[in-house]
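Lecture 7 notes: from sequence to structure.

We start with a single chain of 58 residues. Read the sequence below before looking at the structure.
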Amino acid sequence: MKTIYTDNSKLLEILVANGINITCNDKMEMVVSDADAIKIDAIVAKYAPMAFSDYMVV
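Now the structure, written as tokens:
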């Protein structure tokens, strides 16, 4: 699992609309599967290119 950090709610909506499953862990951090984490950069590049610096996946 990877943690995604962002406060861009529109970006989160775009990710979810494109099949990214975002859940919360016990520390209330947003997490995605390793497979979904790989897809995020491509989704951002295609649907939200202005948000390229609004998130970090660790």
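The beta strands are 2-5, 23-24, 30-32, 56-57. Keep this in mind for problem set 3.
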